[in-house]
Structure formats: structure tokens, C-alpha cells
């Protein structure tokens, strides 16, 4: 009979039971994204027409902003649909990271279509100037006023869903919802900047105010794109579970009478509500193979109950020195990169 104790090696793996999904939350997020998409499509057309008629660089920058947001909402709808596909032979851990990939594309869209075009409009306005008539100012400000109401309504819808999903910390875990909140919040602030720039241009006759508004909108979009892109990058390359969840798993393992020591614990988010857990443990001497299997099954069920998103749990009985494992960056939680 094979025995697994100190100095011997064994491997036990398995899936953590049922696939954990929240279809109801996804449906609410899809409605939120569709509301934002409808608002942005209408607003983008109105801003573009008003910007060309008025010759307003700030208004054209806001039109580019709304076009970027509309494209991003399409990316987010694709993320919601594709990330829930079941695991298959080619992707045994499922397609949960699709959500992070499409969110990264949305961040790139904000940067390229929104931020860069806004910078271009601001520089062009400073270089060539702009000659707006009173009718152009009035039309532009009316368009921006309507846009402010529409963007504000979409933002309130997104914030309402965030509160309904457990508040800011839990609600913002969803990259699709996080992106919509960031886009709508940025849109409201961008409209306010554009209105301020147009009003000051109208009062002073100096186009520099609208040019500065365009540059400020561009800077705002680049910053938001950077933050969203950095978060999506961390999730795509394999972000660990939050320290609180990892601590609970480690404490549970150490509390098991059959485990002599926990030499390493590795976690990785494989989707919005799924996490892979791999632990390297040293068992007490004297356990036969049947007992090892019983212990492994019990521990994996306990981990799944303790951390609901832990749907893939692997235990490795190893003779690797504890000190070597404990010094591993992955085991200690050290972060690398920029």
C-alpha cells in the first residue's frame, strides 16, 4: 500500500464542485451596458453634428469621447457573453479571463479614440484658432446640456447596480461594470469641462479656453484608460486572490490535524467568480493512500465552503524544504513588474 507522509510525494487534484455563476448579476450588468450604449450613440451623433456646425474643438473632443465609449460598450457586451462559456478541452479552466481581455481592449479604445483625438483637437485649436458665432455657442451648449443629463442618468444606473451588488468593493470587481462607471463618470466630468471651455470662449473671445478644455479632456481620458488598462493587465497575467481569502485558506489548511506544515500556497483568479487554489503541504507520518485521499477530498470541500469562488483546488504532498517554498515570491505574495 502506498503511503504518503513526510519524505514521500503524492499528488491529489480535483475541481471544486459546481461551477459558480451569477447569471442574474450578469443580466443586470448587460442592461446597464445597453443603457450606456444607447445614450452614447445618441450623444455621439448630436455632439458630432453640433461640433461641426459650431466649429467647436471642445465639442468635437466630446464627440470622439462618446464614440470611444460606444465602441467600448460593444466590447463589454462581448465580454459578458463570451466569459460565461463552459470549460472545454482546449480551455480546461473556462473562459472567465475573456472578461479581462475585452476590458483591456476597452481601455485601449478610450486611450486611442478618446484621449488622442482630444489632444489633437486642443493642439489644432491653439494652432489655427476658431471663429464661432453666437448660434454655434448656443447650439453647442444645448447639446452638452442634453448630454450631461443622459450621461448622468447612465452613471446613476451604474452606481445603483454597484450598490445592489454589495457596495463599491464588491460591485467594482466586475471589470465590465467598473468600466461603465469609469466611462460615465469621466463623461460627466468631460461634459462639464467642455461647457466651461465653450462658455469662457464665448465670454472672452479667446479660443485658448476651449483648447485647454480639449487638452484637459484628453488628459482625463488617458488617465482613466491607464488605470483601467493596468487593472485588466494584472488580471490577465494571473492575479492572486485577495489577501483576506488567501489568509482564510492558509488558516484552514494549518488547522487540519493531518497536515504537518503548509509549505506554499498559490492562488490565481481565473474569472470574475472563480479562483484556482494550489497548496503544497507536508502530511503527518503514518497515513496510508486511502486516508490521504479522504483527507484531500475533505480539505477541498472545506476550502470551497470557506472561499466560494475557489472552484479549482489542487493539493500537492511534497518533500520540498519548507524554507525554499516559503521564500518563493508566489508563496509569499510578493509582486513583480511595474
Q: Which blocks of ≥5 consecutive residues have pLDDT under 50? A: 1-21, 320-325, 334-338
Share in helix = 55-70%
The total of beta strands comes to 4
Kindly state the mean pLDDT as a whole number? 78
Strand content: 5-15%
Helix and strand element order: EHHHHHHHHEEHEHH
How would you describe what is shown here?
The chain is α+β, with helices and mostly antiparallel strands and 338 residues long. It folds into 2 domains: 23-236, Up-down Bundle (Alpha-lytic protease prodomain-like); 240-332, Cation efflux protein, cytoplasmic domain (Alpha-Beta Plaits), CATH 3.30.70. It has 11 helices and 4 strands. The chain has helices at residues 23-54, 57-82, 98-128, 134-164, 168-171, 175-204, 208-236, 243-254, 289-306, 322-326, 329-332; strands at residues 10-15, 259-271, 274-283, 310-317. A 4-stranded mixed β-sheet has the order 1-4-3-2. Strand 2 (259-271) and strand 3 (274-283) form a beta hairpin. Helix 1 (23-54) packs antiparallel against helix 4 (134-164) and helix 2 packs antiparallel against helix 3 (98-128). The longest helix is centred in the first third of the chain and has 32 residues, at 23-54. The two termini are 50 Å apart. Mean pLDDT is 78; it is low at 1-21, 320-325 and 334-338.
